[in-house]
Structures are given as C-alpha cells and as structure tokens.
Design goal:
The protein is α+β, with helices and mostly antiparallel strands and 695 residues long. The chain is built from 23 helices and 18 strands. The structure holds adenosine-5'-diphosphate and magnesium ion (MG).
Length: 695
C-alpha cells in the first residue's frame, strides 16, 4: 500500500499547496477571503489562477472546469482546455483570474422551475473559494456556485452557503451573549453515511428497468432475501473489496476523508462513511463520492445502484446526515461541556435544534421527499414519514427535570441556574440505540436519517441550518432584553422544552402505536411526496427563507416546481419502462412458454393415454395470469394517456400517484406472479436472485 498521508489530498489545491506556491502576501489575502468570505480582487485572482494552472499542469491536467450543482441533484461540468494560441501554430497553457472566478455556461438546459422567464440562456458560475479546487481525470475542477443573469441562484450550493452564513450570524450572537469573545466563525459540520448496492454489470445490462430507472419495476421475491441477517458487517467479497479499495484511494487523493466501509443489511448492499467536515465541503465530497462509485463500479464490471429502493421487499438505501455546529476555536457546540457554564450553552443550542425541528417539521419532511424515497419512509426499514427526535433516556430525563423545575431550586449560584449542575457526557453507545428515529441525538451531533441514498445533502442542510438560525435569532432577541442573563437563559430553556417536547420520541418509530400517538401530539404525517412538497411554499417557510436571505420567493417556488416535476417525470418514466418490458419481454415469453406447453399437450393427447394434468393446469394458470396482465397493462396505458401535464403541477403529481403509480403496482403483481410460473429459461429478465447474488 502506498503512503496514505502522502497520497491524501495529492490532487487537491489545498492550503499546503497554496502556501508553497503563492507569494506570501497573496496567500495571506486569499486566506482572509476564504475565512471571511470577502471579495476577491482580480489581480489577486490572476496570481492564484496562474499558480493553480502550473500545479495542475505538473500533475498532468490539460483542462479546467467550473463544477457546479444544478437543481438536478447531480453535478455538472463543462471542460475547457488551458491552451492559448500564440501565433505560428504554437500554444501555451494559460489560465486567467477571470476564468477562475467566473464562468458562463449555457444555463438553458438545466431545470430552473419558475425561474424560466427571468432566466435567459446565460448563467454564471462563481468560484466557491471555501471548497478547494482538485484534479480529476486530467481536469482541474473548480467548485462553483451557479446563478442566473439576474442573480437568482440556480443551484443547490448558493443557498447552502447562504444558510451557513445565516446560522453563523445567529450562533455568534448567542455566543457573544454567553460571554464568548474569542469565536470568529461558527460553521456547521456534516458527516454523510452513504448506502449503495453493487450488482454484476452483465445482469444489470439485461434489466432495462435498472438502466432507465435505477430500480427494478418487476421481480418476484427471491427465496432467500435478507431474512438471515447474514450480510450486515459480513466479510467483504473480493470483487467488492477491490472496488472499495479503489474508491477509497481515489477519494483520498481528492481529499475526501473516506473512513468506514462495511456490508449492509441486504445482500449486495454496502455503506461508506467519511469523517465529517464543513457542510458545503461535505456536500461536494458526497457528490464526488456518488459519482466515483458509479464510474469505479463500471471499471470493475459492476453496477452501482444508488436508488432508494432498487428491489422491492429488500431493504432500500438511505443516507444519514450527521450534523453539528462547531466554532473556529475547535468547540463542538452540541457537545456537553466540562463546566455548568458550558452546559447551559449546550442546552441552549440543543433546545434550539428541538424547537427548529418541531416548528419546521413539515419543511424537513419536504426535503426528503422524492418518488424513490416514497418506497422507504414508513416501510419499516427507514424512519416513518413522521418527523420526530430521539434524545435518549438520560438527556430526556434532564430536560424533564428542567421543565418541571425539580433541581431548579438547589442549584449553586455559579452553576448557571438551568436546573442541572453538571451534565454527564453522552457516550455514543447510550444515545445511539434507537435506529428507528428520523432525527437522533447521538452524543455530540444529530443524525438526520430520512434522506434517500441519491439525495444531495444540500437541501436538508439548507433547511436545518436556516431553521436553527431562525430559532437562535429568536433566542438572541429574547436574551438581549434580559436584565438577568442567567435567569433569562434558564427561563428560555424551560419554556422551549415545554412548548416543543412533543417532537421528542424515544420509542420505536416503526410501531403502529407511534403513528397514532404522533397524531395525538399534532405531528404531521405526510406519507407521500405529493403531500410533503407543498410545505416548501407555505407562507411561514417563504418568510423563514426570505428573512435569512437564503432563498427569495422566486427561488423557492422554482425549487418546489422542480421537485414536483421530477416526481412526475420519474413515475412516468417508470411506467413507460414497465409498458415496454411487458410488451417487449414478458408477453412474448408467456406466448412462447404457452406454445411449448400447448405443443406438448397436443403431442401427448395424440399419443393417447398420457396424464396431461400438469400441462393443462399450467396452461390454464398462465393463460389466466396473462389475461390479467393484459388488462392491467391496458389500465396503465390508459392512465398514461389520461395524464395531462398541462394541468396545475400538483394536480398532475396527484394523478401520477393515484392513477399511474397505482396502476403500476397492480401490473407488477400480475407480472411477478407470472414470473413464478413461467419456466426460468423463457423469462426474459434476470431474477432477483440473479441480481442480488450476482457478485
Ligand atoms: P453510525 O453508522 O453508527 O451512524 P458512523 O460512525 O458510521 O455511525 O458515522 C457517523 C458519522 O458522523 C461519520 O461520518 C462521522 O464523521 C460523523 N460525525 C461525527 N461527529 C460529527 C460532528 N460533530 N458533526 C458532524 N458529523 C459528525
Ligand atoms: Mg448512521
């Protein structure tokens, strides 16, 4: 194995490289820009660009690209080479400051939702100076934000950066109120656990549904699924191991802290988790990870499935978004401290998150809504569609005590009158027991577990950051008016617990009782994407985002439209794929098999006294089932014809769910039952066993 510390980040234009390659004053100025988000002057940019280009060319790069996160959920790039003609048929390698800080990709082909009218073909990409440039495939990648000519954000990066700014501003107010004068910057940190499936490429290529929709729209259950629990943390198969090894090496070179890898619950399912980092970087890194997973799998003769539910009846894939707040002085604000003083501050941030999640539960739910994730949420393999928080017994008991004022009286003076003198540390093993919770406190961070595996982590974090920023703003406003800060903070914590404790649930989120209990508590339960998405444009949410400068109303509405459109498109593509597979594969297979049976039956009958029970029974069964299949196919085709995408988009989405998706489920039942009675050699598509045990 190569020297990992040397390998790590070797393809990244990070601070070490900057320091080595930039004149001292330029490096200092750039660092200031990076940490304070100030404007980058063009002469400075020119020097940086030139150093970057020299470094990249030495590493074999020939091109550069502005790399951005359009609202498709994946990343986009357009490559330009460094060459610049100098006459007499010669070129030199050149890269200017202007090219570094700003690009002008044609933006008209990216989804823009309601922004379409304000938005010409032109869009700008602007260097996100806080995320390092890197080299991949002989190209220098420059992480950028993407916006329209009129300045509206067309990507997921810009609002994410704005939300980080919002939470920084408000958290800093709180810290100052708490007497902290040292901290200059509060950042949110994110660690993303990524689940995925690997299957053999050859079987993958025989499944049009996997190729077009990333999930199987047909497939009878295999006789052996995940029932035996023998895959989780199992020993990793050699082909998978080779894939993981290459993935890790590539990620390390790109400065991604790939840390943990293991087999997951379902056969063919695995997980990768990096060490956490600043949110926008974690988001960039997760996108890189997903992209590399796909391309590296391909090299290894594998297909990487990132879909939330590639196989019905088998656990789907999620993404866990571990989230916390940390200061530039190295303090995790969700870590209980050593002193009562620090603990008061910890509790304040903790209850701020509780209030934020309770108040904006619908918005959080909306950020994890997609056609793919509809298969998981509430299906007893992922959290339910109800947002709630797990705090663990210990912490809940402390909050209960504060609320009821039990310890409140006998707190010594310097103990910050918050009800408890000292807080225990919450080791992971006592706080991490509940795996069914959507939003769990795990010792020193929160783990939001509702994300689907294909999701960009941008939107969930935009919402968490902004919602918490808003609560911190309210807290700061209140506390600034308090004459007695200690009493004020105690009162505030108590009040917040009382008003928002309904969101805390430490029990089994998969149980039916919880759905009933949650309803009593007034918590929302948006079972599908169609129900969940409208929360994005509720007046209170529009206000929230405007107030903190994260989205303006047009930007927000455009996101809403894009999500609904994408839901409708996904369902439609899946339905069309089903129609094609039935017409092109399943019906012909039924005909051929029936023909074989009929021929055999005829021969047997001609010969006289053979027993023909088997052929007759099978023929009848398949004939009946095929007839049924045909009817359901007709129904699906009729629904597809009736779907009218000129309608109001929400009505269209409702139609997709209630008619098209419902018809798809019906059709699937027929096809899957046929799969179990048509001889394998006639069935046109690899079975679930072929797929799940292909590696
Ligand atoms: P589990 O599978 O038990 O949920 P893992 O150890 O696989 O836990 O993943 C935990 C994730 O949480 C890792 O990515 C880790 O880096 C991240 N994490 C740890 N501390 C923080 C923090 N302060 N902020 C954000 N993420 C964190
Ligand atoms: Mg986890």
């Amino acid at each position: 194995m190569k020297n990992i510390p040397e390998l790590f980040g070797s393809m990244v234009f990070n601070e070490t490289v900057m320091q080595a390659r930039l004149p001292k004053d330029i490096f200092k100025a750039l660092k200031k820009t990076m940490s304070q988000g100030t404007h980058l002057e063009l002469d400075l940019a020119n020097v940086v660009a030139n150093a970057m280009k020299d470094w990249a060319v030495e590493k074999g790069a020939t091109h550069f690209t502005h790399w951005f996160h359009p609202m498709t959920g994946i990343t986009a790039e357009k490559h330009d080479s460094f060459i610049s003609p100098i006459g007499n048929g010669k070129v030199i390698m050149e890269f200017s400051g202007k090219e570094l800080v700003r690009g002008e990709p044609d933006a008209s082909s990216f989804p823009s939702g309601g922004l379409r009218c304000t938005f010409e073909a032109r869009g700008y990409t602007i260097w996100d100076i806080t995320s390092y440039a890197f080299i991949k495939d002989d190209t220098l990648y420059i992480p950028t934000a993407f916006c329209s000519y009129s300045g509206e954000s067309l990507d997921k990066k810009t609002p994410l950066l704005r939300s980080m700014e919002a939470i920084h501003t408000q958290a800093l107010r709180i810290l100052r109120l708490c007497g902290n004068t040292m901290v200059q910057r509060v950042s949110t940190t994110v660690g993303v656990e990524q689940e995925y499936f690997l299957i053999d490429k050859d079987v993958y290529l025989k499944r049009p549904d996997l190729m077009y929709t990333d999930r199987t729209v047909f497939g009878a259950r295999p006789s052996k699924g995940q029932e035996l629990d023998d895959h989780y943390f199992g020993s990793i198969k050699p082909r998978v191991y080779a894939f993981m090894k290459e993935l890790e090496e590539k990620l390390w070179k790109l400065g991604v802290y790939a840390k943990t890898k293991h087999d997951e619950v379902a056969p063919g399912q695995h997980e990768m988790a990096p060490v956490f980092t600043t949110t926008n970087i974690a988001c960039d890194h997760n996108q890189l990870t997903m992209e590399l997973m796909r391309t590296i799998a391909d090299k290894h003769g594998l297909a990487c499935l990132l879909h939330e539910k590639p196989f019905a009846g088998v656990n789907g894939s999620g993404k866990h978004n571990n989230w916390s707040l940390s200061t530039d002085t190295g303090v995790n604000l969700l870590e209980p401290g050593e002193t009562p003083y620090e603990n008061a501050q910890f509790l304040l941030f903790l209850v701020a998150v509780i209030k934020a999640v309770d108040t904006y539960q619908d918005l959080l739910r909306a950020t994890v809504a997609s056609a793919g994730n509809d298969h998981r949420l509430g299906a007893n393999e992922a959290p339910p569609a109800i947002v709630s928080m797990f705090l663990g017994d210990e912490l809940t008991a402390i909050l209960d005590a504060i609320e009821s004022g039990e310890d409140y009286q006998d707190v010594s003076q310097q103990a910050m009158e918050i009800g408890v003198t000292a807080l225990p540390h919450f080791p992971k093993d006592t706080t991490d027991r509940n795996r069914t919770s959507p939003f769990a406190f795990t010792g020193n961070k929160f783990e939001f577990r509702m994300l689907g595996s294909t999701f960009s982590v941008a939107e969930p974090n935009i919402v968490i950051n902004t919602a918490v920023a808003e609560v911190l703003r309210q807290f700061a406003d209140t506390l600034e008016k308090e004459s007695d800060f200690k009493k004020g903070i105690a009162k505030l914590i108590k009040k917040t617990i009382r008003e928002h404790k309904r969101i805390v649930f430490n029990g089994n989120n998969y149980s039916e009782e919880w759905a009933i209990e949650a309803e009593k508590r007034g918590l929302s339960n948006h079972r599908t994407t169609v129900e969940a998405l409208p929360a994005m444009i509720a007046p209170s949410c529009i206000d929230l985002f405007i107030k903190h400068g994260v989205y303006n109303e047009t930007e927000l509405r455009s996101r809403y439209e894009i999500h609904i459109e994408s839901y409708c498109k996904t369902i439609t593509i899946e339905a069309l794929t089903m129609v094609d597979m039935v017409n092109g594969g399943i019906i012909p297979a039924c005909i051929v098999y029936q023909n074989e049976l009929a021929k055999l039956l005829k021969r047997k009958k001609e010969c006289g006294d053979f027993d023909t029970t088997l052929e007759e029974r099978l023929l009848t069964k398949i004939a009946k089932a095929s007839g049924c299949l045909l009817k359901k196919l007709d129904a699906l085709e009729a629904a597809l014809l009736k779907a009218d995408d000129s309608q109001d988009i929400l009505t269209h989405a409702q139609f997709c769910r209630d008619n098209i998706f419902a018809a798809m489920s019906e059709l699937r039942i027929s096809a899957d039952s046929l799969e179990t009675c048509v001889a394998k050699k006639y069935w046109p598509y690899p079975s679930y066993s072929d797929l799940l045990y292909s590696v």
